[in-house]
Amino acid sequence: MRLRKFWMAFAICLYFYFLALCQGANILGVFPYRLPSHFQVVRPLVKELSNRGHNLTIITPVGIYADIEGVRHIRVHNLNKMSKDLLDSNIFLDFFPNKWAEAYWTASMLSNISKSVLSNEGVQKLLHDKNERFDMVLLEAGHLDALYGFADHFNATLMGLSCVIPNWNVDLLAGNPAPSVYEPIMPREYKYEISVMSRFSNWIYITEEKLLSSLVFRTAQQKLFNKYFSHSSKKLSELRNQFSVILINNHFSMGRVRANVPNIIEVAGIHLSEPPEPCDKDLRRFLDEAEHGVIYFSLGMDVLVKFLPKSIQQMLLESFTQLKQRVVVRSDVSPVPNYSGNIYVLSQAPQRAILEHPNVRLFITHGGMLSVIEAIYSGVPILGIPFFFDQFGNVHRVQNAGMAKVLDNNALSVDILTSSIQELIENPKYALKAKEMSLSFRDRPMSPLETAVWWTEYALRNQDIRHIRLNEDEFPFVQYYGLESLVSWGLRFGFVIGSLFLLVFKIYKKSSHRQRLVLKKENNQPHEGIF
Q1: Would you call 30 helix, strand, or coil by DSSP?
Q2: Among 210, 209, 227, 183, CA closest to 397
Q3: In the sheet that 136-140 helps form, which strands lie side by side, from edge to edge?
Q4: Cα–Cα distance between 261 and 519 in angstroms, integer?
Q5: What is the spatial distance between Cα 429 and Cα 267, in angstroms, rounded to a whole number?
Q6: Mean local confidence (pLDDT), 115-124
Q7: If we measure between CA atoms, which residue out of 183, 181, 146, 139 comes closest to residue 161?
Q8: pLDDT, position 18
């Protein structure tokens, strides 16, 4: 009888133990960007984590996709107002004249984003509710440093997600300070050549960005952190070193291999896990009947065609009408004036379905990260016309890889645009490289979504992150960068060069001394004259 009671008690304890193991974690997601492209990356991960039994609360703008079933949403209306003010200001008409203007605008935008989130009534209620518990805070690993305070407030694991091309700031947050992976935050004037002068110029460029980050970006975020998390037990600089795993929207097949530490996980293509929107009958017929192939033109969801200068709009149309290929144009300007029968215009395009069509020969794009990923996935060559932010880096990467060409939007002409299109279509090397990159991009042990979910749950299981982060204290600056060998080599080289200089100097000094003696001797001799 006692034995039976023992086994019953043991079974009950075992049951509750496994029940505790299976219980979902409480995850707070902070995704404040108004750009729809970012949420195409976030949404599949949030939905899958919810389906696996985790309890998610996400902070987002109003109207960015419908509510996800089983997920608690906190909507921040001020984020929508910021977006409307941005569009009303017509800032895109100038496309930022230089990186300093871009940096100033970006710092102001990021500060307003953090302030809008932290001052929101729903968010404040969340912060002051003592019954709220979170095991993880998942947010964009960018310059929204004030929002890192959520992790310390709830004593939760801090996990990052980078929807854009990874840069040196993401590397520093992950504890990955190797100079070989330095990439700019704002690559407008970055040099993509490999010459010595380009490398030196890029070193100055990155140094300037670090100064901007320390003096402008972080200063504004520090003020907000001090205001809303004054009770924090940790400094903001300490929280920057608390990131466990950072998921990055990148893959080594996309044009450049990176030196990643174990907690940087490449999940490019995570948004491809959702089914693509199909083409309607008319668009399908237009694509199927294209005898010479199809060119697809789209500036994504972030660059509106109506904000392009009229000269560029007219230039695009003139170039497209000269082509024998059919052109599918995604445009918010409707109807488009002066177009011929080879152009099909639509305001909302099923981009993935179009790129997957076998007749599509070229994709003309602004270079948004998701557009580049979809082109690589479909094996379609790219003609990039970047305007701002990460677009420059995205298209220059695939250009260096060999499947794209990049044009300067300030130096466009009908002839340049038309000749570039013809080269990309008629030269088979671009299509071959695109297919090669597509095969490499698809060849993975797990899908991007499966990879993201596994590492998210890994971060939940392993709150002590020291075993996956590089401990910089174990690697002194001189040792980490191998400067001791440089010093040794430099001393030897310096000794040889110094000896040669000393020898040359002694020879020169001795020669000069002899010349002075000769001149002195000549000056002391009597001169013969008529007197």
Answers
A1: strand
A2: 183
A3: 72-76, 55-61, 26-30, 136-140, 157-162, 243-248, 264-266
A4: 71
A5: 28
A6: 94
A7: 139
A8: 41
- Is residue 404 within 8 Å of 395, Cβ to Cβ? yes
Strands (DSSP E) along 141-240, which ranges? 157-162
Could you identify the residue written with the tokens 């419908």? Answer: 66
- Scanning the structure block, which residue is given the tokens 């009229």? 310
> What pLDDT shows up at residue 378?
96
Picking from 94-108, 245-259, 409-423, 473-487, which range would have the lowest pLDDT averaged per residue?
473-487
The band of 302, judged by pLDDT with boundaries at 50, 70 and 90, is low
In this prediction, residue 147 has a pLDDT band, given cuts at 50, 70 and 90, of very high
Q: Calculate mean pLDDT across residues 478-506.
A: 71
CA pair distance 434, 73, nearest whole angstrom: 40
Which residues are bridge partners to 159 per DSSP? 138
CA–chain centroid gap for 183, Å, is: 9
Phi, psi of 184 (to 5 degrees): -75, 155
Tens digit of each residue's pLDDT (9 = 90 or more) over 432-465: 999 999 999 999 999 999 999 999 999 999 988 8
Q: Is the peptide bond before 187 cis (omega within 30 degrees of 0)?
A: no
pLDDT tens, position by position, 471-488: 666 655 555 555 556 666
**Which single residue is written with the structure tokens 């490499």?**
440
Mean pLDDT is lowest, of 98-107, 479-488, 493-502, 504-513, for 479-488
Name, in order, each residue with C-beta under 8 angstroms of 479's C-beta and a sequence gap of 6 or more: none
What distance in Å separates the CA atoms of residue 424 and residue 422, rounded to the nearest whole number?
6
- Could you give the C-alpha distances from 28 to 24, 58, 161, 460, 518, in angstroms and in order? 13, 6, 13, 12, 90
Phi, psi of 135 (to 5 degrees): -90, -25
Q: Would you state the CATH architecture of domain 281-442?
A: 3-Layer(aba) Sandwich (3.40)
Q: What is the largest CA-CA distance in the chain?
A: 148
Indicate the CATH number for domain 25-248.
3.40.50
Select from 260, 263, 262, 259 the least CA-distant residue to 244: 263
Q: Are 58 and 29 in contact (CB under 8 A)?
A: yes
In DSSP notation, 174-190 reads: HT---GGG---SSGGG-
How many H-runs (helices) and E-runs (strands) does the chain carry? Answer: 20, 13
Torsion sign, CA atoms 163, 164, 169, 172:
positive
Q: How many CB atoms lie within 10 A of CB 518?
A: 10
pLDDT at 491 over 60: yes
Tracing tokens 């994504």 back to the chain, one arrives at 300
Total length of the chain: 531
The burial of 444, by beta-carbon neighbours within 10 Å (0-12 exposed, 13-18 middle, 19 or more buried), is given as middle
